[in-house]
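Weekly structure sync - notes
Attendees: PM, LS, DV (DV joined late)
Agenda: review two folding runs queued last week.

Item 1: First target. Sequence and structure tokens pasted below for the record.
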Amino acid sequence: MAITFRQLQVFVAVARERTLTAAAAALFLTKPAVSIALAELEKQCGRTLFDRHRNRLYLNDQGRRLLPMADELLARSEAIEQLFDNESLGGHLHIGASYTIGHQLLPTLLRDFRVESGHRDQRITIANSASICTALEAFELDVGMIEGRVAGERFHVLPWRRDRMLVAASRDHPLAALGPVAVERLAEYAWLLREPGSGTREQFMRFIAPRLPQWELSLEINSAEAIINAAAAGLGLTCLSALEARHALSDGRLVEIELDLDMTREFSLVLHRDKYRSPLIERFVEFCRQRDEAVDPP
């Protein structure tokens, strides 16, 4: 059985893109060339690697077994190509970050990493924590930076830094001028919340919802900035990161509602246990861990 490098490239691309057309575009190949390479690989393996459904391809159990090894071979090949280049680090780094980290911390962190390492070839995907974990599981990302909790033995989770959650409202809100407020009072007002799957929504459900006899959802929005604007417009209370809220608090659009409640959460670096960790990935993770609390948002 002579499996070729091109066949593995096609296999990994199809696993990530889930259609032959998208995989062909990613590899700058024709769709027939991708189809032939995948068919030859499955023939050589003696089994199908994907389930087909309405022109989309989904990894089956056999494909999931092959993916970590194929991904590692491609990564090691890339490292070999870069081995004798002048750059101290070679290869492409794909980082997935949840919204708060991606908007508030990653720009400064990435700037400093480029200065320190000389590496410039990065790609950033920003999504909610659940989506980042899904992409890591599919080997679409090299490292994840999330604000939610992670379940499952397939991930290696490294605690990174802490963040404070707070409750905020418009300056005209009835609770804005009251000073410290009992948590139970928050049940009297409607809430503006992020979508399920986001780390911010998870923290609301962890810290606040269990302490309320009931709560009303006013709006569900998948954007922190939109939630800030909605809260400033008087549409309800919101629970969000102090990092996300800092500008709106400083310019008076929002007011923090004082609570006798510690709402500290932890940001984490997440890697798939079966993914090959290239020198580039290891360098970036170590850089982040050294800069745990030293990253100042822009």
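Item 2: Second target, run right after the first with the same settings.
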Amino acid sequence: MTAIAGTAGGAVAAPRVSPAATFRHTMTLSWRSLVQIKHNPMELLDLSVQPVMFLLLFTYVFGGAIAGSTGDYLQFALPGLVAQNMLFASMTTAVGLNTDITKGVFDRLRSLPIARSAPLAGRIVADTLKQVWAFALFLGLGLVLGFRVQTGLIGVAGALAVLLAFALAMSWVAVLVGLRASDQEKVQILMFSLMMPITFTSNAFVRTDTMPTWLQKWVEVNPVSHLSDAVRGLLSGGPVAEHAGISLLWAVGITVVFAPLSIRAFRDRV
């Protein structure tokens, strides 16, 4: 039932949208974002080229020097590369959201009888689902190159679940950057400046004990290190519970901090 509240000036309040309708609107706009790939294949290409490039470069250029053999390094580094790619892929959310706003897409959507949160939620859901493609591509190419999953399908599903939970949390950071930045160039600069240091000062690519003592202290608490170790344990065997638990706690903390900031920025901007 649409609730209409009159005011002294004769204004009419926005119609209330039920949770079920909000969910439908979000899924519809999420599907819209995914279908756009058919018309703009470059969106999927961005999620395809980077995983292939990083996996081949790190395995065959750095693998022998770091681990002694490319096979050993691939087994160690692939989970970290998956985590790194997930963080870098969050730039897609920031850039896409900024583009939709600057081009007036959100203004057109506001004229439709849909939940106000649906365009933002739809973008987040769609970009999170795109991470599944990147994960499958990484794992498929890794298997071709010699990576071996030691934990079966349950381990693969667990790794994907942890990655998606963290990706969903990081999407709120991307949303905030996309809303606050004035154009795509600033979005890319801000996101790259954030993701590069936090990724490369982790154990995603090299073991912690090979780093200087002062850096090890940060690496041990870096959320990307825990995420990489969780994915490593879920795919290759080894400790899982502690690292997965800490990764999920980081995801919750990031969401608690950045979701309200992003929603406020969304209301201010849109």
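Discussion on item 2: Residues 19-268 form one domain.
Action: LS to circulate a short write-up before next sync.
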